[in-house]
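Chapter review. Work through the record for Saccharopine dehydrogenase before attempting the end-of-chapter questions.
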Amino acid sequence: MRDKTAVGVLGGYGAVGGAVVRRLHRAGAGPLLVAGRDADRAAALVTGLPEGGSDAAALAVDLTDPDSLDRFTAGCRLVVNCAGPSYRVLDLVARAALRNGADYVDAAGDDPVRDLLSAGQGAERWAAAGRVAVLSAGALPGLSSLLPRALAARATAAVALDAYVGGVAPLTPAAAGDVLLGRGPEHGTPAAAWEEGRIRERALAPRRAERLDAFPAPVDAFPFLSAEAVRLARDTGVGRLRWYTVFGGGRLAEELAMAWALDGTGTAELVTAADEDVRRHGAWYGQEFHLWDGVEDGPPTARLVLRAEDSYELSGFLAATAALGVLHGAIAPGVRFAAEVLDPLRVTEDLATDGAAELRML
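Structure tokens for Saccharopine dehydrogenase:
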């Protein structure tokens, strides 16, 4: 068995995993294990790190093989999971981490993973073992809840919030799987809004050709009240929350609607549609939040605008931030979402200087 001091990043050579590895390496959080099915890709990423990744190593790990996964997690003090799609991986890696005495950070891992880990006495087992599991440490979910919390933290009485999240970006097969599978009542409610402490169904219509500062061109915004948005509303106490998923190109939205209508499971068409949108419109991503402080009438009293070229870098930023928090002992044992345990004002300040995005609070 390896010395149990390593920080293992599963899916560490992917779009999100690579961003996590680079940030952790820069922060001196080694030794690092860059893990995944393709040992050659893992080794190439390690070699490309400063000083040839002298404090990092590549490892072949097949998460569908319990023995392979146990060997990997047994050598780690912390496992950062960037493998996907999340809605198929679910709690598989997290349970291996707990079984082998490692803490856990998931760049995805939304409510279905939390529910699986917390079922029965699951949450108590993590706490009793002194182990930490941090979920939803990505751009969405994750920053999409932390950034508006930073706005709310600066308000006297936050009463209403609008959110616009999305853009135009290439999809990895894993990300396409999460987009395809992220539907159903456990994930959220289309066309719904949060009003007066409850979900109001069929409350909102799509907004076409919307002009917002977070996006370089007019966008179509589709209302979808996610489980993350409901938690945000409850935690901040806002009486009204309207949440919109933004598409800057038409092909992905069309292909996704068709896949859902036909109950499709293939991701190749979504990847192709996203690539077509990027070729036509370029790649860009944004998050914009409007907050009303004290009164709901009139224009918003505060706004937060984030613009980025790459949402995967944003996910890497937050997953690495959560990992460093765990390593520094700043997060108590148990199963929690990143937005519940990270300081929103500190995260917002750090992101503003990270280089992964342009961020303004107005």
